[in-house]
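Team,

Forwarding the record for the chain on the shared tracking sheet. I've put the sequence and predicted structure together so nobody has to dig through attachments.
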Amino acid sequence: MNDQEVRSKAREVIGKCMFPAFATVDENQCPQIRAMMPIVVGEDFTLHYVTSRMSSKCRHIQANPKVSTFWSNVVDPMKEWQSVLVKGVASITDDKALRDRYWMEELRFAFPQGADDPNYVILIVKPTEMLFADHQNMSPLVVKL
């Protein structure tokens, strides 16, 4: 499978998994994994997430910006499954244009001041590498991004 085919297959998996696992590394060098829904998955697999500036993930990213996001689509664990892992470098921004673009009233429970809430930030993950695996390709196919 060439890089373009891997990217296409990866997009299919990403489209089927609403809440991928997002991993950071904590102050004890242990992975911390949580389900997070990306707001945007760009053509180049750049990821945008909404989060709180006060979250542990923001503290982790400030200390170590290397992160991973993992999606999986399992139809039958022994016969049909696919997974995608995107590794990247995260940054935290309070860019007003992005905050306004991604604001949803459903977020108000966490950010009472709305799009101008000082704790409302956007995580941007610039991808460095993607790994794709499925029931036909047990060894991950790697695409440098």
